[in-house]
Design a protein that fits this description.
The complex is a heterodimer of chains A (about 450) and B (about 250). By secondary structure, chain A is α+β, with helices and mostly antiparallel strands. Chain A has two domains: about 180 residues, no CATH class; about 180 residues, no CATH class. Chain A has a six-stranded mixed beta barrel with strand order 3-4-11-6-8-7. In chain A, helix 1 runs parallel beside helix 13. With about 250 residues, chain B is α/β, with parallel strands linked by helices. Chain B has a single domain, classed as P-loop containing nucleotide triphosphate hydrolases (Rossmann fold), CATH 3.40.50. Chain B is built from nine helices and ten strands. In chain B, the strands form two sheets. Chain B has a six-stranded mixed beta sheet, sandwiched between helices. A four-stranded antiparallel beta sheet of chain B has the order 2-1-4-5, covered by helices on one side. The radius of gyration of chain B is 18 Å and the shape is globular. Chains A and B meet through helix 1, helix 12, helix 13 and helix 15 of A and helix 4 and helix 5 of B. The structure holds adenosine-5'-triphosphate (ATP) and magnesium ion.
Chain lengths: ~450, ~250
Amino acid sequence: MSDGPRNASRQEASVGKDRAAQLRHEHHGLYSVWSASREAFWLALEALRAHKLRSFLTLLGVVIATTTLIVVMSIVNGMNLYISERIANLGVNVFILHRFQWAQGYESFIKARRRNLPLRMEEYEFLKENLVGYKNICADSRLGDIEGGGIDARYRGHAIEDVRLEGTTPSFIDMREEKVGIGRYFTDSEYQHSAMVCFIGQDLADEFFPNTDPLGKEITVGGANFRVVGVAERIGTAFGVSLDRFVEVPLTTYQKVFVARVQVSVSVQAWNSQQMLALEDEARTLLRARRHLPYKEDDNFGINASDTLMSAWKRLTGTIFAVTIGIVAVFMVVGGIVIMNIMLASVTERTHEIGIRKSLGARRRDILMQFLIESGVTAATGGALGVLFSFIISRIVAVYFTSSVPVHAVVIGLALSTAVGLFFGIYPASKAARLDPIEALRTET
Amino acid sequence: MTMASQVAPSLEETIGPADGIVIKTHDLWKTYEMGEAIAVQALCGVSFEIERGEYVAIMGPSGSGKSTLMNLIGCLDTPSQGRYWLNGNLVSELSDDELAHIRNKEIGFVFQTFNLLARASALHNVELPLIYSGVTALERRERAEEALRKVELADRMHHKPNELSGGQRQRVAVARALVNDPSIILADEPTGNLDTATGEEIMKLFDRLHEGGNNIVLVTHEHDIAAHAHRILHIRDGRIDRDERVQ
Ligand SMILES: Nc1ncnc2c1ncn2[C@@H]1O[C@H](COP(=O)(O)OP(=O)(O)OP(=O)(O)O)[C@@H](O)[C@H]1O
Ligand SMILES: [Mg+2]
């Protein structure tokens, strides 16, 4: 008891020392996690480099999953761009009467093919006269609608194959995306008199009249001669196909020269979106009455609006994404399990190393981080490979179809693969972290 | 004896050691449970103190509990019973991570089998303890090089362990033990895997470290090696048999 005070003061000193050690510990705590993580990061990359083939096989699941995800997102993105362009092309508040309803299921299309009747010129005239309150109305008909192909256009020995030939009413130019570049569209008078005039796309102007004024020149389309009255502004391409390879002539001329009894699409423009439905209903009633359809029978024509297209497209992309998510999930889980197995093997293989690290002061969280980072980096490498592959695939797809890799697809792909690696790394990493230092050291490898 | 200390621990036994005592153990027991019925008593109530600056050898026959004791002193393991103070702090009841911190800061361990990371260079091996104490990369490298210079291996720092001789490997291990400036250096048969001449080199290294003010505790079978120490603890059947001071 005599040395009580001395002991007390010494204990105080030792408490102070404890505190100092703790402070130092806390001070270094975050940085040590960082420096240990950085070491783990380089170790993981080195391990990947050392066993290239094994790593690639390990990562196959994650690579396939990421590639699938990004490629599908890119194609859908490309389609989206296309579809929204098409919809813009339809014009605002426009609906189109046509023989068929667009984007319907296969079965209803087969049925419709049996009973639906094409729209005729007279029906267009009838709607134009009897429909009230619309802003604009036009009709058009293209050769492709019947024969599924284009036609040749010639000018002084130059020829362009597969030109889209279309017969239209003069109001067509006001309702569609096309704009007059030079010259003019054909007039009501030219329309009424079935004049041999045409309005051409930029591709034809470039090819036939690179250095001369196209206006007033005569070109030959499908064997008949037409005088050029105007050239459209350039539109561009979709799915790798130029949209500027067209010739438009008055619908009346078209009927006279090419097709005896044309089938048309009738586009009606409302003043505003609120008016759309009422106008659609009116057009439907009028056309049904003219076709003498009994009350109970379905329409034998289709009324299409941009929202028809949009909802059909949304349905389609919904299905595509559901399927894709399923595929991606399966591959990710498979890939994750493979990574987990490899990590478990790696923990066993490196038990001695873990023992050494622990004997030198690695805490549980240091070891945990090391293995989590390793599996995260491994999976992220798979993700990066997936990104690379999907860029290549997307390039190829874009040549034949349409595809555009969106940035968010890359971000999602990388984030998802890393997350999978981290998640499936938890079990092996915590197993490693919990190892007893002495037993780990004693393990021979 | 254990029962007695449990029932009525004396003050001296429960409050910490005096100043200048680096290691104090009181009644350390280590029991390995080998199954339902069998238990191996590796240590049976070991108590001793080591003062600052001492150079201690632990000797004893095989299986007498030397490594078990070293692992306890080195905070690699925890006793089944008993207390252990390191630098006045009671460490026998600390958690895993707290022990890891002590191993990192206070203890430099040299193993019979070197225990270097095979894939890492000598320099990286020496840097490891510093990585876990959060020393910046630049300082880490400086200190690791300094430690390698102390063991005269500066010219081999980029070699991997399998490109080094046994003696060189053990010198890397000693550099690693030194690098974080620990309170004690523990060595479990550091010359056990080396020939006599190389072993003698390593012992000279320890002598120098001791002269530089380091505390050294080493386990050995050989009297020649133990002769470097100033004090020899003889262990037999998990008990301290004899505490011998040598000049
Ligand atoms: N993990 C373990 N499980 C069970 N028994 C163990 C374990 N480690 C050591 N022992 C036992 O404890 C006793 C002491 O072992 P220890 O390794 O401390 O001996 P040692 O003095 O270092 O021997 P040596 O000189 O051969 O290295 C031995 O009887 C050994 O069998
Ligand atoms: Mg031993």
